[in-house]
Amino acid sequence: MAKSVLFVLTSHSDLGASGQKTGTWLEELASAYYRFLDSGHEVALASVSGGAAPLDPASLEQPWLTEAGVRFQSDPAASGALASTAALADIDPAQFHAVYYVGGAGAAWDFPTDPDVRRVAEAVYRQEGVVSGVCHGVLGLTTALDPNGHPLLAERRATGVSNKEEELTGFDKLVPVLPEARLVELGASYSAAAEPFGAHVVSDGRVVTGQNPASAPLVAETVIGLLAEPSA
């Protein structure tokens, strides 16, 4: 049975004071997008502010541009959806079985502060849906509370882009929030791949997190597996 999955994208395009641009990382969007669609599920794109959601320019270039990214860019339906995302404030979470917070450094600015990022995560979780995120996108889950009023990620196994990976890319000096540090601060049990940039996914109940771009398709596969369970 087809399920509906909401992709949440950042609307933030400035990489701090660097003078460079950022946004969603294409691989984290495209690889998961096609995993869901090719499995027969429905995908809708929303962003914090709505409208055209920015992509990180670096993710559109070699060696970061992947087959899924090329497919996405040449897909009129996908490109059209990215150019006209729904505003997250207009989203009714009851329409979705899962939410996926897509990464990209831009998410470090608006995911931890936007009230609708929190609202959607909490609502999907409370209606027995699956909540997920990858890389900087896991920050979309860090403000959510569980039905008991406790941080959703507290005492839960989770991952996200590591402090080491942030240091290696220089983002540790640019982004306002380091995902690993925020997860640990919340009391999550953080883990990462043995080597930086290696794929790593953690599933704890109906919460699925991925470490980095290489983890995005695996996050999607894990969510697909959970959606196939009778209770999903």
Give the structure's gist in a few sentences.
By secondary structure, this protein is of the alpha/beta class.
Structural commentary:
The chain has a single domain (4-227), classed as 3-Layer(aba) Sandwich (Rossmann fold). It is an alpha/beta fold. The relative contact order is 0.17. The chain has helices spanning 26-38, 67-73, 76-83, 107-110, 115-126, 163-169, 179-186, 216-227; strands spanning 4-9, 42-47, 86-87, 98-101, 130-134, 157-158, 189-190, 201-204, 207-210. It starts with a strand and ends in a 5-residue tail after the last helix. Strand 8 and strand 9 (207-210) form a beta hairpin. The strands form 2 sheets. It has a 7-stranded mixed beta sheet. Strands 6-7 form a two-stranded parallel sheet. The protein is built from 8 helices and 9 strands. The radius of gyration is 16 Å and the shape is globular. The longest helix is centred in the N-terminal third of the chain and has 13 residues, at 26-38.
